[in-house]
Amino acid sequence: MNDLDDDIDNDNSIDEWIEDDATPCRCLLCPAVLPDPDATLAHLTSAHAFDLAKTHKLLALDFYAGIRLVNYIRAKSNADPSFNVASVIENRDSWISDDAYLIPVIENDPLLYALDFDDDDDDVNNDEETAIANQFSNSVFLETSNSNADKKKIHSLEHQLAELKAAFSEYKDHVRDTFLREKDSSSSSSLPSSSTISLIKQTTVENKKEETAWEMDYYFGSYAETEIHETMLKDVVRTDSYRDCFYSNKDFFKNKIVLDVGCGTGILSMFAAKSGAKHVYAVDNSTIILKAKEIAAKNNLADKITFIRGEIESITLPVAKVDVIVSEWMGYFLLFEGMFDSVITARDRWLAPNDGIMAPSHADILIAGLEDEEWINDKLNFWNDVYGFDYTPMKDTFCTDGQVDVVSPRSIITEAVVLKVTASEGSEYKIVKSERSESYRKLDLATITSPELDFKTPFTLKFTKPGRLHALCGWFDIRFEFPHKDANPIFFSTSPMVKPTHWKQTSFPLEVPVDVNAGTVFEGVFVCKKSKENVRELDVVISYVDPNTKTERSQKFTVR
């Protein structure tokens, strides 16, 4: 048999050894001993709401950082049985580069052999090599010329690429030898050379950060941060309304099964539990759910709330139906972030038919005309002269992005209108008069479908005073309504006329301001769709007739 065949046989024997040598593995966070590492990973997720694989991916850990993570958790949980595993993310600087945690807490820890969370090592490593190779190759292509200096640069880059490939080869060999073949993994001499690790880190760290930012779901990752939850909890308009929804209707929520979609820190779940709910199932795909579970326990509600980590589209509930679905899914201009699609999925899968309740139950999207010369000067005309320089190229996005900001109530110069929501059809934006039927004015959250969240609607604005129309200002209203006669409905608005919320308002600046008189009528068509490039974002098209020149205009915006 030739050398190549020997290598193939050796690789196969290693794979077989890994499969056949599966050994009992102790949990990271409790004394439980499971049959093998896979069972241990499953136990961590189900019993402790801690997903090691997703944490590994969320933090973009390389092989050695993954080992440090396991040993850090073992060391901390051994020293303190009440150790909060959620702290590994906030305290990552204390362990992620500390080589002391390369030494196993448990000799020959089987969990260290299960740290490869990709399906194919070689494919993954090849992808990394290819990405880095492309980085160097692109540099070559961009800089190539006939000059001797450029040729020397090309030669230097090719030499760096060759060194990098050799380093990766050594890296892979050492990983396999050290952590799969060597039983005595505590020996520091078996680790790859510091120069090899240094070269790999220097040449891959920036690429890896960029790749990981796209590999992980940025949306859920952003909700792992404390700041965003602090902002939402301190928004008293929002939080008081949800609290009042539950506390003012305790008789209705008593003994109900509640599903909280996107539970965050668990505040809505705890409101439901305190209102007498029989049980609450709280679902979130962000690591913040680990904090939520701890918070519920601190408030003696652990037996009332079951926390489930995962996407609502893929999880399984232990019940067939729920009586209530509560969620704080709203984004800028109501529909930004696209979270309501997940709420619709939950509704269609689990909400009890006929008498199931959505909280909130209804929503409206509204617009009005805006005049604000100070805002235009601050955000747009500022670029005309920046320390004596012409910065006008920076103006480009002002009239193409929805501008999220708090609008002064004094700036509103028209009556507000509720946008009629119907499914968007075709690409023609014909100017027609608004329909005034009240039946079109509500987004009934118990019945609306995902396609209907993309809408096209005519609108008519009537000016209440003379002025100059700089933008259309948009916001939303939310209602909690219940079918029983003794219910206490709850309402809140994100209008510029009331106390500001963290949603603020979303304004759409006109490229050509329109001068108007009191009583002037401004007609147009408003189209809103999910962006094809990023489903969290919204693509908006506003078409209108200039009431002075009778000219039809159209502008496109992105809400992001």
UniProtKB/TrEMBL annotation:
Any one GO MF annotation of this record: protein-arginine omega-N asymmetric methyltransferase activity
Statement: the UniProt record of this protein carries the keyword Transferase: yes
Cellular component GO terms, alphabetical: nucleus
Gene Ontology annotations of biological process type: methylation
Reactions the enzyme catalyzes: L-arginyl-[protein] + S-adenosyl-L-methionine = N(omega)-methyl-L-arginyl-[protein] + S-adenosyl-L-homocysteine + H(+); L-arginyl-[protein] + 2 S-adenosyl-L-methionine = N(omega),N(omega)-dimethyl-L-arginyl-[protein] + 2 S-adenosyl-L-homocysteine + 2 H(+)
Keywords, sorted A to Z: Coiled coil, Methyltransferase, S-adenosyl-L-methionine, Transferase
Protein arginine N-methyltransferase domain segment(s): 362-544
Pfam families given in the database record: Methyltransf_25 (PF13649), PRMT_C (PF22528)
Superkingdom of this protein's organism: Eukaryota
InterPro entries xrefs: Arg_MeTrfase (IPR025799), Methyltransf_25 (IPR041698), PRMT_dom (IPR055135), SAM-dependent_MTases_sf (IPR029063), Znf_C2H2_sf (IPR036236)
E.C. designation(s): 2.1.1.319
Coiled coil regions, renumbered to chain: 147-174
Domain Methyltransferase: 258-334
EC class of the enzyme, as a word: transferase
Keyword S-adenosyl-L-methionine: yes
Protein's UniProt name: type I protein arginine methyltransferase
Species of origin: Physocladia obscura
